[in-house]
Design a protein that fits this description.
- By secondary structure, this protein is α/β, with parallel strands linked by helices.
- It folds into three domains: about 120 residues, 3-Layer(aba) Sandwich (Aminopeptidase); about 100 residues, no CATH class; about 280 residues, Histone deacetylase domain (Arginase, Chain A).
- The chain is about 35% helix and about 20% strand.
- The chain is built from 17 helices and 19 strands.
- The strands form four sheets. An eight-stranded parallel beta sheet has the order 11-10-14-19-18-15-16-17, sandwiched between helices.
- Helix 7 packs antiparallel against helix 8, helix 9 packs across helix 17 and helix 16 packs parallel to helix 17.
- The longest helix is centred in the middle third of the chain and has 20 residues.
- It is globular.
Length: about 575
């Protein structure tokens, strides 16, 4: 089932032969196969699984080509008996950390599957995206860590060219970029945010010289190329920016599909969360997320996380939780340029409305990652936070209740019934409690500083839910100065039994890290040790109740160093790591 084609000769990045004319020895081929696949699959079975029919297209003349350090799958794409394209697949293991400018993380030992080339004579068939999704599942099961797709944004190029995109119109550019994101998410393409951000450069080029036009060539279906050929006979003049769009080199897409940590953890993150502007000195500032992002990179965690982009939710998902009139008044306040919305602690800026919706969409993306099997759990590094927001009320830095939108979305999208929301922020999640206190299928558990001493002054033991939801709310208030021992004892004594008895289908965490002893706006004395313990116990509970499904959503934490240390400890624990260094004294 495996052979070497001696007529194929490739070059590696260092100029040495990639595939050699002299076939490698049988021993060498077996060693290479074992290194990549072990006993998971044999060559004949792999060829059969690679060549399965997709969208009415099959593979012909497929070969597995053994090179010096990798295996190549090369085939024709057939529709019936007609050859309509070509596919080249590159399978290898990353051998060394290479200093290079790549938009994705790699590290020694990672197995990589790389669609080096896929070409079709017919566009808009949906074949490439369907093949990608099938191969993603296949290579995840085979233990590969990273999926790369060289032409990941060609769909965007054709999309914009066919729509007649003119880069000199900045507003239209923004609209088209947003529409491309919708396309990318709907097709689940492996496109990183920084790749789409590169398109801004095209707008800048066009704005610099809007007078320059470049000849391009059009085919009968409306697709364009920079070079004339028989298929593209019609000359058209394009603005400089639009021609740049067609002429830029293929972009490298990537997607982490497997990690070698005990648990696969998705990290939901977007630069757009930084567009929620707050005044200097405001506790909930951009520095929280930028510092966490840099720490994740500095600690080498990025390569082991499944980085996931959020998306703007459909308004029906947000309206399931929030009053449409309230959301509209929020949007209007931002559009007017107001400095605050509803209360003085809810500072807003030009990007606040979109960032708040995107924070809820980040939780939805984390839920998608978990329920689709791309990850075992997720940490959503979102802002602004949400657990104080009510159906028609903003307060405590919160505008949209992110975990509440996530709970409603999980039910509507994945058909689950019972959701546990565990809130360990130092401040009681009054908005979340109010939204679900009459719902018997949502267990809301909050462990927080006693309301007599801490904002927002709610969350007493006597509050146990209302009506049909009586008994589905549990508040565990802690007195000021309570530390790790008091937090962990209360967690074990009250929180764990409540979740075990409820047996949820999904656990959502409102993960605030302001119970840390160094945090400036609470009076608890915990360290990272408490967060590590609670995270481990939640994972164990989820394993017993709901197939390990945990989605953690960032809430508070306002001293940057203690927040970052606590969040890192939490993320490492979500990954199942046992090496849990704590940077705070006594942690």
């Amino acid at each position: 089932g495996a052979e070497l084609n001696p007529s194929v000769l490739k070059k590696s990045g260092k100029g040495a032969p990639f595939l050699v004319r002299k076939p490698p020895s049988r021993t060498r081929m077996l060693a290479l196969w074992w290194d990549l696949f072990g006993h998971r699959v044999d060559p004949g079975e792999l060829l059969s699984r690679l060549s399965v029919e997709v969208r009415g297209m099959a593979h012909g003349d497929g070969h597995l080509l053994f090179g010096r350090d990798r295996i190549l799958y090369d085939c024709q794409i057939l529709q019936g008996n007609e050859a309509v394209g070509h596919l080249t697949l590159d399978l290898y293991r990353e051998r060394e950390r290479i200093v290079r400018f790549l938009p994705f993380p790699t590290r020694p030992g990672h197995r990589v599957v790389y669609i080096e080339g896929i070409s079709l004579t017919r566009q808009s068939t949906g074949y490439a995206s369907a093949l990608f999704r099938r191969y993603e599942r296949l290579f995840h099961d085979l233990g590969f860590h990273l999926f790369r797709l060289k032409a990941s944004l060609s769909v965007g190029k054709y999309y914009w060219a066919k729509e007649g995109f003119d880069c000199s119109d900045r507003k239209q550019f923004q609209e088209m970029r947003d529409r491309l994101w919708d396309l990318v998410w709907r097709l689940d393409l492996p496109v990183a945010e920084q790749e789409v951000r590169r398109l801004v450069h095209m707008a800048d080029v066009a704005a610099f010289r809007p007078d320059i036009q470049i000849p391009v060539w059009r085919d009968r279906e409306g697709y364009y190329t920079l070079e004339r050929d028989d298929a593209h006979p019609e000359e058209v003049l394009f603005p400089l920016g639009k021609a740049f769009l067609l002429g830029s080199s293929p972009w490298d897409g990537h997607k982490v599909i497997y990690t070698d940590t005990p648990r696969r953890t998705a990290l939901v993150w977007s630069e757009k969360y930084l567009s929620h502007g707050t005044p200097a000195g405001h506790p909930e500032g951009q520095k929280r997320l930028t510092a966490l992002r840099e720490a994740i990179r500095r600690e080498g965690l990025l390569a082991s996380l499944i980085v996931t982009e959020p998306y703007l939710p459909g308004m029906e998902a947000v309206h399931a939780i929030h009053d449409p009139a309230y959301l509209e008044s929020f949007r209007e306040a931002v559009a007017r340029g107001d400095r605050y919305f509803a209360t003085r602690d809810c500072a807003i800026g030009a990007g606040s409305y979109e960032a708040a919706l995107l924070a809820a969409g980040g939780v939805m993306a984390g839920i998608d990652a978990v329920f689709s099997g791309r990850s075992d759990n997720a940490f959503c590094a979102v802002r602004p936070p949400g657990h104080h927001a009510g159906r028609a009320a903003a307060m405590g830095f919160c505008f949209v209740n992110n975990v509440a939108v996530g709970a409603a979305y999980a039910r509507s999208a994945y058909g689950i019934a019972r959701v546990c929301i565990l809130d360990w922020d130092a401040h009681h999640g009054n908005g979340t409690q109010n939204l679900f206190e009459e719902d018997p299928d949502t267990l809301f558990v909050s462990i927080h500083e006693h309301p007599s001493f801490c904002y927002p002054g709610t969350g007493r033991r006597m509050d146990r839910g209302k009506g049909a939801g009586a008994g589905a709310t549990l508040n565990v208030p802690l007195l000021p100065r309570a530390g790790n021992r008091e937090m962990i004892d209360a967690f074990e004594r009250e929180v764990v039994p409540a979740i075990e008895a409820f047996r949820p289908d999904l656990i959502l965490l409102s993960a605030g890290f302001d119970a840390h002893r160094d945090d400036p706006i609470a009076d608890l004395e915990c360290t990272e040790e408490a967060y590590v313990h609670m995270t481990r116990r939640v994972l164990a509970l989820a394993d017993k109740c709901c197939s390990g499904r945990v989605v953690s959503v960032l809430e508070g934490g306002y001293r940057v160093d203690s927040f970052v240390a606590s969040a890192l400890a939490h993320i490492r624990t979500l990954q199942g790591r046992e090496d849990m260094p704590c940077s705070s004294a006594g942690g």
